[in-house]
Design a protein that fits this description.
alpha/beta, homodimer, 197 residues, two-stranded antiparallel sheet, Rossmann fold
């Protein structure tokens, strides 16, 4: 998505070897106009997939997932990283390991919110090692729901999350694919939605 | 907001003495249509307040805050409950005590995202004891930004958050105000936006 790549060039900040900071429009401050266009793009790509629910994980995935849900006219569900006092239903539960935080956390969705036969589009802000995405896929398997695809706003293509998802037969749509960082600049690989630009 | 009260009657679930579960449309599964109307309502109430930013706290506040930001055509910023590897700027930091979780957590916003002179509308999903809301107000004070008001989707009017905010001279707009729970049913007090219905 050319618009997103341009915005990453303008407002993204490369930190060290492998971190991209996009807190001006995605992960902390949220530019609703860009998010809306991102949500619409995901909806365009999956327009004929019969999506019944958009699923993401708190917190930075919520904005793009919400606009994707709006464009597809379906509900959005966000997986929770912590159990709270109102989560008294049966839960779909999985463990997600974070390489950056070096810890395993539990991710859960109420089993009442995803039904057998649901056709789910999974959305997230970043795809790196793929742990969160694979965790969400695993939750959908538990619910006997079908994952029709995964939409990632930004993919770090030099990490192995992409390959892991493709190895599982998943359809993957990353709107900005980072091939590498060079002298503090972002070099992009062709995005999965390039034909829609 | 009549539409919201009706939805709470239909899909809300009273748990024990003082907990309302609204995971079908707000805190876990998100009904974008309702959230959009809620966002528009906040924007109506604060249409002439010169809002420059909408601020919320992750995660359930994000959806209503995003649509409020869209309706007001300003950016949305969500405060973070955990510091991550990209938060290398100066931070606005406060402590928020959770009565339900019985623990104090740190809430932070990058100081670059809120500027002196910003006119901020604070949005959150629930107002109960007011700790999260007061924490956000405190962050805005640190940034020398002006809080033009607080918009709460659901207020538990039998807890003291409302009074604490009013005591600080804040303008408060709660779209559904729960006076009490009676035999598992929700009894509402007049909402702050009733004149807009």
């Amino acid at each position: 998505m050319k618009l997103l790549e341009d915005r990453i060039h303008t407002d993204g900040q490369v930190l060290g070897q492998d971190i991209l900071k996009v807190d001006r429009f995605l992960t902390h401050q949220v530019d609703y106009q860009l998010m809306k266009k991102i949500g619409k793009r995901f909806a365009q790509v999956y327009a004929n997939a019969g999506v019944t629910k958009v699923v993401t994980i708190e917190a930075s995935g919520i904005a793009p997932a919400l606009y994707a849900a709006e464009s597809l006219n379906v509900p959005m569900v966000f997986a929770k990283k912590a159990k709270n006092v109102t989560m008294n239903d049966d839960l779909l539960i999985t463990e997600v390991y974070s390489f950056t935080k070096k810890l395993t956390s539990t991710v859960q969705i109420s089993s009442k919110l995803i039904e057998e036969g649901d056709k789910v589009l999974i959305i997230d802000d970043f795809l790196a090692n793929g742990q969160a995405a694979l965790g969400l896929v695993h939750l959908m398997e538990q619910a006997k729901a079908e994952v029709v695809g995964l939409g990632m706003v930004i993919e770090k293509s030099f990490q192995d999350g992409r390959q892991k998802l493709l190895d599982q037969g998943m359809k993957l749509t990353s709107l900005a694919r980072i091939e590498k960082f060079e002298d503090g600049k972002v070099i992009f690989a062709p995005a999965d939605d390039k034909d829609f630009d």
